[in-house]
Amino acid sequence: MSLSLALCFDAPMQSWGARSQHIHRDTAREPTKSGVVGVLAAAMGVPREDTEKITALAELSLGVRVDREGLVERDFHTAQNVPNTEGLGHRTVISHRYYLSDAVFLVVLEAEGADQEALLRRAEAGLRAPAWPLYFGRKAFVPARPLLHASEPADRRDHPSGWGLSDLPLRTVLMTHPWLEADDSPHRLDGRPRGEDAPRPLRAVIDCDATDERAEIRSDHPLSFARGDRRFASRSFKTLDIPLTPAMISPGDRSCS
Q1: DSSP notation for 150-215
Q2: Which of 21, 100, 135, 236 could lock onto 70 through a cystine, CB 3.0 to 4.6 A?
Q3: Of 204, 203, 235, which Cα lies nearest the Cα of 217?
Q4: Cβ(101)–Cβ(73) under 8 Å?
Q5: Under 8 Å CB-to-CB from 174, ≥6 apart: which residues?
Q6: pTM here?
């Protein structure tokens, strides 16, 4: 039996760096595993120096369904009087920082075995009463709505947030969890060919084996967040299309962003 945890990541702005270096701070088009692990660690009160717990969280399987793609935007930053490594040569530094605007994601984690299931239950408890503030990539990018629904509604389609823990496999949750938009959302029409009435499928990114013919590789499996010792291993993932069925669509407005 599987145990999975479904979360809603909705915010006016989010940033999920995958290849950031120096003055260029990029963002992926969906939450990265290192970013999701950071959110869980903050909720559970895990210090960045606790590499054992960070590594354990990174072993959970991850799937992300993109319920609203959002737009990639760029901040233009300047900082004055920045010294070099010797404390000299003060100058003005320009940096380019990218972020996602108006995006919504269903984030699903899956546990295998008793130890991971216990860890996932502790993570769920932490997200309901976070030890530290939660944010999506930058401290200013705070959630627009709860990551988890407060209680089980009578109609599962009426979930304005993630439905939390369930005994369903990760892929089944991605295929059946209520869309985090509503039927009357203008975003439902985005990207459809003219005259086409059916909603477009939802893009999803899930962990997979490195030997999968559709696997992509990214340095996104955190091993340590410790200052001066940030380390990542390779993560393999693939992209799927999830059909948006009528059973997944709520008739009411649930958007908060």
Answers
A1: SS--SSTT--SSB-EEESS-HHHHHHHSPPSSBTT-GGGGTTPPTT--SPPPEEEEEE--TTSTT-
A2: 100
A3: 235
A4: yes
A5: 63, 65, 106, 108, 204, 206, 240, 242
A6: 0.88
Q: How far apart are CA 148 and CA 4, in angstroms?
A: 13
The per-residue pLDDT for range 169-189, each reduced to its tens digit, is 999 999 999 999 865 565 555
CA dihedral 163, 241, 31, 126 (to 10 degrees): 20
Pair of tokens at residue 156: 């599962």
Give the burial class of 167: count Cβ atoms within 10 A of its Cβ; 0-12 exposed, 13-18 middle, 19 or more buried: exposed
* Token couple for 100: 């996602």
Give which of 31, 167, 37, 166 is closest to 107, Cα–Cα.
Answer: 31
- The CA R_g of the chain, rounded to the nearest whole Å, is 19
Write out pLDDT tens, residues 83-111.
888 888 888 888 889 999 999 999 999 99
For 66, other C-beta atoms within 10 Å of its C-beta total 19
- Of 16, 12, 222, 11, residue with least CA distance to 137: 16
